[in-house]
Amino acid sequence: MTQNATNMNAEGTSERWVYGFDQITAAEAAVGGSWDAARGLLGGKGANLAEMTRLDIPVPPGFTVTTRACNRYLQMDGKFPDDLWVQVVDALHSIEEQSGKRLGDPNNPLLVACRSGAKFSMPGMMDTVLDIGLNDEVAKAMVTSTGNEHFVLDSYRRLIQMFGAVVLGIPDEYFEEVLTEARHAGGTHSDADLDVEALGSIIEAFKQVVVRRASLPFPTDPLQQLRMAIEAVFKSWDGKRAHDYRRAAHISDDLGTAVNIVAMVFGNTGDESATGVAMSRNATTGEPKLEGDFLINAQGEDVVAGIRPTRPIEELADEMPEAHRQFAETAKRLEAHYRDMQDMEFTVENGKLWLLQTRDGKRTAQAAVRIAVDLANEGVITRAEAVGRIAPEQIEAFLHPRFDPAALAELQPITSGLNVSPGAATGVIALDPDLAVRWAEEGREVILVRPETKPDDVHGMLAAKGILTSSGGRTSHAALVARQFGRPAVVGATDLDIDLLARTLSVDDWVIQEGEFVSIDGTSGDVFRGKVSLTEGDLDDPHLSELLGWADDISVLDVRANADNGPDAERAARFGARGIGLCRTEHMFFAPDRLPTMQKMIMATTTVERDEAIASLLPFQRDDFADLFRAMDGKPVIIRLLDPPLHEFLPDRDELQRDIADLQIKLLRASGLDEVETLLSSVAQANNLLVQVDAQREANPMLGTRGVRLGVLIPELTSMQARAIFEAAAIVIDEGIPVIPEVLVPLVSDVEEFIRQRLVIQAAAKCVEDEQHIHVPTVVGTMIEVPRAALTAGDIAEYADFMSFGTNDLTQTTFGMSRDDAESGFLIEYLESGVFTSNPFATLDPKGVGKLIDICVTGARAVKPDLEVGICGEHGGDPKSITLARKLGLTYVSCSPFRVPVARLAAAHAESMLADEDSATGRP
Ligand code: ADP
Ligand code: MG
Ligand code: MG
Q1: Read out DSSP for 384-449?
Q2: If you average pLDDT over every residue of the chain, what do you get?
Q3: Over pLDDT 90: what percentage of the chain?
Q4: Which ligand is nearest to the CA of 58?
Q5: What's the pLDDT score for residue 919?
Q6: Which residue minimizes the CA distance to atom 14 of ligand 1?
Q7: Residue 190 has pLDDT above 80, yes or no
Q8: Which of the residues 446, 556, 707, 730 has the least number of beta carbons within 10 Å of its own beta carbon?
Q9: Which atom of ligand 1 is nearest to 302's Cα?
Q10: CB under 6 Å to ligand 1: residues?
Q11: Which residue has the higher pLDDT, 364 or 176?
Q12: How far is the CA of 96 from the centre of ligand 3 (A)?
């Protein structure tokens, strides 16, 4: 290519619009040397084709028209920038030299492919046009020179069809109609079986289609074909589908697309030729083995189009052992070079292998983990890189039910939409929420299918296993609610036609009745007809364990779990929790064998009565704590004292009144004296309970007598719980298991509350020590869940051994809104209309709540520099909140056992994010 083919651009400097595949170094230099910028200039496909050329991997000669040329073309309302065409023709000559063929030369014709390729691969861009350069004259000459009339005519009819559909925008069905007729006449189902006569008449019929539908003849001049194809690629950047996709995927509109012109290689010359696609590793499982398909005697999209049954890549070894060996070796090289699993397209022409594309392969979360771990173990990437390559959210995929991969392999989705809430679900279609509820109550699994959802539909969404809508985007009502309640969902499946009157769902030719099975994959966005079998999530994947171990080596933040009983604590330990960050004791009082004693305690009229009830609760508590200590085997266990308002342990007032009314009716009809007596005593008991319920009634129970306030009013309750904790510790220590109990006092707002509780706890500990002759360190901390505690943290820190943020309550008290009321009410509206950009109960609010945490930590550490401070709210399992926690200098986060793996990975990521920020701000 001539190097002086330049153009003066707006800035007055020369612009080069075209780079040969053998000129990647020049392209890199033009954009400052970075590979990423080179990809921006040449598009992903073009940059990788050039890179493969630099690596001496067999790629047909070709060149790339830059994304800047596309932008300029669009800016100038569809005019080629000056000099562009000259540069294209120049580059074409260079391909002609390399291949020894010439475009349009009947004696030795060059054919080329015109392929779009933006920086990020995206749907909506123009499809590839193959076999450019053919016309009647060239075709005739090629028949003579190749002696393969079938191949030449097959390529020619493909060109007219692709050019007509893609460049001229003629609907494909006009061409398909001709093909169907020809197959019919030839008595075959496959295009490959059409004979040369048939192909000849198809070509003539196709030309007629073009004239009729595009009002211009199929262009016979190869250069004109090329120019029109390039323009069509430019224009496709501005197409509606491309625009919509970019908006949804947050891809900038001014990236532009590149155009790649590549000399054709032919997989359709006969049985010595083939075309195929393959991944260097299995994209579903991550297994380090080539995975792909090929077809003998085929071209282009035949493999993915499903026209003929494809064959697994292993079988290429039998058919063409040398090409297979070379391909496997190339796959290894490309993987080592790009340091990631590759997705490749290739063609074998008369036994010779050509690579036509490579890119990082898409994969499932499971495969992503295995591939990252394997690559690190093979020494291709570092362990830190492996950790960095997996998004914490991907770990969730291990938890969600998913479709059985074997079942999935047999299926094609009928359509797809936006993957807004992960997980797979299968069930019968219900087109309205009431029906969904009714069927769910009958024990059927339901998928709620709606054009879109509204607040009125929520009951149906909750009853359903999954949600599917035909309109709406990532922040639609359906998407928000589905994510919030953990229902798999696919929204905005625009190809779906929902007919609420006919009670049907249709896509293309499928018509599915309400009540039939449909399956949705909220992780991929795919929709399948019928019932697809599910497999349960599994966190015990060995590769995941290995990766998380590496994550732990990187993180500074500890991850603990919220667990209330032995089995949960065991699970937490298995998932890698470094302790229990929160054990809620109230669950221990709700058990049916304990609740009556709890009620007795609340209703006691004398101190003796009350202390008796409290004392009889102690053994239950002690056993529960012992189980936790055993499961955690020497790791810290934080136990929170009783937190909820007492009314929660009493029956509902309305129910109680109904019971009393019932009893009174029975009393009227009672016959025997014995019966009257029992009934009377029941009525008295119920009335007594009602008095208590009324006595405990509060206008705002969540802001009433709960948390530390209970312990201040009834110190015996605190004393009993402390005794249970320390006695359990003594028992487990006696078994030879180390124990670190830490007592957590909830809802403190003033240091005096804490001081009083601390004294009670210490006294209880002393008693146990004296009785059991054993030493257990008395560690007492406070929860920070009201702003006043955060603001006076310096005072509290004088007495507290640790602090734990109850971020759920802290968010409620900071915003002054109740979570239940918010999430089932105005918050959905707030999120949909953008008043809030995220749900503060899901992701910690950095500006308000985060600021309070900062003030608290700073105040407390001024008094005790090494004070242990953590988060025990649900936020502890949310990656963004975890990063914030690390930034605020917290010691640990605690979350539900199932979230522990997600949090471990997020904690490792927080380190690299912090490092990135530090280097950006110039801090050491
Ligand atoms: P997409 O981005 O949709 O994959 P491609 O440009 O990669 O589109 O091409 C589509 C198909 O055409 C692929 O199967 C590819 O292998 C084939 N193809 C592209 N260029 C050539 C070529 N120069 N010779 C033969 N086949 C080609
Ligand atoms: Mg491709
Ligand atoms: Mg709380």
Answers
A1: HHHHHHS-HHHHHHHHS-EE-HHHHHT---SEE-EEEE-SEEEEEEESSHHHHHHHHHTT--EEEE
A2: 91
A3: 69
A4: 1
A5: 78
A6: 300
A7: no
A8: 556
A9: 14
A10: 60, 113, 115, 128, 130, 262, 264-265, 300-301, 345, 347, 356-357
A11: 176
A12: 75
Q: How far is the CA of 356 from the centre of ligand 1 (A)?
A: 6
Angle at 915 between CA 903 and CA 550, to 5 degrees: 45
Residue 123: pLDDT band (50, 70, 90) is low
Residue matched to tokens 């030493």: 775
Ligand 2 centroid to Cα of residue 364, in Å, is 20
Ligand nearest, relative to CA of residue 642: 3
Q: Burial, 843: exposed, middle or buried (Cβ in 10 Å; 0-12, 13-18, 19+)?
A: middle
Mutation test residue for ligand 1: of 294, 299, 303, 357, the one with most atoms within 8 Å of CB: 357
Provide the phi-psi class of 118: left if phi over 0, else alpha when psi is between -120 and 50, else beta: beta
Please identify which residue in the block is written with the tokens 């505690």. Answer: 789
- Residues designated as active site: 477, 872
**Residue pair 31/37 in contact by the 8 Å Cβ criterion:** yes
Which atom of ligand 1 sits closest to the CA of residue 267? 25
Give the distance (Å) from ligand 3 centre to CA of residue 807: 8
**Top mutation candidate among 130, 134, 166 for ligand 1, by most atoms within 8 Å of CB:** 130
What confidence tier does 524 reach under pLDDT thresholds 50, 70, 90?
A: confident
**Rounded distance between C-alpha atoms, residue 565 and residue 585, angstroms:** 9
Residue with tokens 């005697």: 297
pLDDT value at position 2?
40
> Could you read off the pLDDT of 33-64 as tens digits, one per residue?
999 999 999 999 999 999 999 999 999 999 99
What the block records as the tokens of 612 is 């008796």
For strand 504-507 and strand 497-499, is the pairing parallel, antiparallel, or unpaired? antiparallel
The whole-number average pLDDT for the span 183-208 is: 90
**Cβ-based neighbours of 612, under 8 Å, separated by 6 or more:** 604
Task: Name the closest-CA residue to atom 23, ligand 1.
Answer: 264
Best of 64, 101, 128 for a ligand 1 pocket test (most atoms within 8 Å of beta carbon): 128
Cα–Cα dist 782/800, whole Å: 6
Residue of minimum CA distance from atom 9 in ligand 1: 128
Provide CB contacts within 8 A for 656, sequence distance 6+: 686, 689, 690, 693
Q: Could you please report the per-residue DSSP string of 551-603?
A: HHHH-SSEEEEE--SHHHHHHHHHTT-SSEEEEESHHHHHSTTTHHHHHHHHH
Of the candidates 573, 572, 552, 579, the residue with the CA atom closest to the CA atom of residue 910: 552
> What distance lies between CA 187 and its chain's CA centroid?
48
| pLDDT the model gives residue 668 | 87
Out of 298-312, 508-522, 693-707, least confident range = 298-312
Q: What is the pTM of this model?
A: 0.82
749 SS3 class:
coil
Residue that is written with structure tokens 């492919």 in the block: 113
pLDDT value for 922: 61
Q: Which residues contact 738 (CB under 8 A, 6 or more apart)?
A: 633, 634
> Which residue has its alpha carbon closest to ligand 1 atom 12?
300
Mean pLDDT of 354-382: 94
Query: How many angstroms separate the Cα of 872 from the Cα of each of 561, 745, 850?
Result: 8, 13, 14
Q: Which residue in the block uniquely carries the two structure tokens 């003066």?
A: 8
Burial annotation 101-139 (CB, 10 A radius, 16+ → b, else e): bbbbeeeebbbbbbbbbbbebbebbbbbbbbbbbbeebb
Q: Which residues contact 536 (CB under 8 A, 6 or more apart)?
A: 401
Three-state secondary-structure class, residue 238:
coil
Which ligand has an atom closest to residue 785 CA? 3
Which atom of ligand 1 has the smallest separation from the CA of 127? 3
766 alpha carbon – ligand 3 mean position (Å): 28
Evaluate whether 900 touches 908 at the Cβ level (below 8 Å). Answer: no
Measured distance CA(130)–CA(119) in Å, rounded: 21
